[in-house]
Amino acid sequence: MKSLWNDAEAAQFAGPLGPRVYTSRLLGRDRSLVLHGGGNTSVKLREKNLFGDEEDVLYVKGSGWDLETIEPAGFTPVALGYVRKLAGLAQLSDPQMVNELNTHMLRAGAPSPSVETILHAILPHKYVDHTHADAVLSVSNAPEGEKRIREIYGERVVVIPYIMAGFDLAAYCAREFPKQAGKNTVGMVLLSHGVFSFGPDARSSYELMIELVSMAEEYLARKKAWQVGFSRSEPEPGPGRSREDIAKLRRAMSDQAGFPMIVKVNDGEKLAAFARRPDVDKLSQQGPATPDHVIRTKPFPMLGRDVATYAGRYREYFERFSAKAKEKKTMLDAAPRMALDPALGFVAAGRTAKDTAIVEELYDHTIDVILRAEALGGWRALDQQHTFDIEYWDLEQAKLRKAGSPPAFTGEVALVTGAASGIGKACVESFLKRGAAVIGLDRNPAIAGLWRRPDFFGVTCDLTNQQEIRKALDEAVRRFGGVDMLVLNAGIFPSSQSIQEIPAESWRSAMAVNVEANLLVMQACHALLRLAPRGGRIVVIGSKNVPAPGPGAAAYSASKAALNQLARVAALEWAKDGIRINSLHPNAVYDTALWTEEVLASRAKAYNLTVEQYKKNNLLRTEVASKDVAELAAEMCGALFAKTTAAQVPVDGGNERVV
User: Fold this and answer.
1) In the chain, N or C: fewer CB atoms in 10 Å?
2) Are residues 517 and 548 in the same domain?
3) Do β-strands 302-303 and 456-460 pair in parallel, antiparallel, or remain unpaired?
4) What is the mean pLDDT of residues 524-532?
5) HSE-up of 568 (CA within 13 Å, CB side)?
């Protein structure tokens, strides 16, 4: 492991917290050190209060902040002297600890202090860094882990047995640290948890972390346990890998959870090889690399696809350990968050696409820890009691009780065609705002980069090509697990021509894009919509020209009318599958790719109006924007339209010919 310190870069971080912010970000950049909110850093400063009196202040990473992107506001100032004294108490419950930390913050509005605040306070060093380094976990989770850690570091680190983070750990370290620490001590290892480094300045503390982790890596290399190979192998015979198979698995997981889930499939070399190992049962079912992961991952992955059997095992795990708990525990849902399957490889599941991506990355690193520990003589996870204690920690249960309702479409997947501009682009934004993961299809290659976030997947696709649709759906379902909502928006508006002047090719093109392409998408999505946890929903972006065609737009009007009839028949045929389909008929939406200046001018001329008059040529004398259509499209997929199918709703400001 190499230090990422850069003098020029460091100079950009000014102020008392600048160096602390900079090295925290350096740690956060390295996924082998910390993952998704893990790890912790702090600094002790002496500051003047409002009366000019100097006081010692501990700035510690606040809850909810990630080291990779942390800013000065992400560090919570607390009264160091008071917090340090807490470690000397005989006992302190979790609610009491939270109260004492929150009532001794020195900045209103600061994030809640980390549960490891007291531990940072009792360490007698200005800068303290804490990570969950893969290499250190690999060693401490091997046979004779403590002995190996002491062999690597000698008197350079204090070694602490596993104790759950919070008051008990801090109180134990307050007693034990002075006993073990000497003049050469620069760090501390919490077995099966992580490693600390500390120093008088940010750079020395950071680079000591790099040095300590490098020593563990070098030890693993000497023992031939650092580079673990992954043998290529073909999937074993069994359940298929089709998008419908994945959607079935997602449906089973969602039904067990009681809410829709996003599912991601990864059959990359490492994850697939691990799933196909003959000893995968022994290696995967012991527990996580460190109990902290369990909040995201559940205590063990599902093997195969039998969700009901997994749920039964999880309930047994809960009943066994909750019976020993001091306080009554409320069981979480019994759905798996991970699965290892010979055909699919690794499957991650979560409430959101972000949650799912985190689960995937955590297990990717867990495999490294498991296989390296196995190479040292045998992977050993902590006793499941420790895992249960974290998963059902009072503080975590309290968070669940206080959590508000998630956005309406959380865990669901929307597919939008023609998503790179106009109404389609606005639809993507409306569905993202409501918590959905969104698949955007468009022939414009820009679709792939319009939204860089885990809950959006853009695919370049010619919707008149059945093979391209299938390929795009295969990729999308592996990313999110299925399709719950479909917005058929892609279309073309041929130039204005009288019937006798319409070229055959122009007519065929309008029918191919506005009708046949939508048919192909519907056919490809039907099996997925049928498996949607809350029922499939389709919104067709039609046109005012369906009920009220205009002169010079025969190809467009006829193709949109044909699409409208297709939607009505689909409503009749697919209702038995729990799929509802409704149509929107917008008019005069000019911020779309269909309305070029040329088309707009020609249509205005056909009505003997100026362009500005044409834009507001409706009863309400108002302009209709893409966002207006998109918001109603999203609502049509929500609870308000739960009992409506085959509806046709105008979004046109009121049109005399339609009325």
Assistant:
1) C
2) yes
3) unpaired
4) 98
5) 9
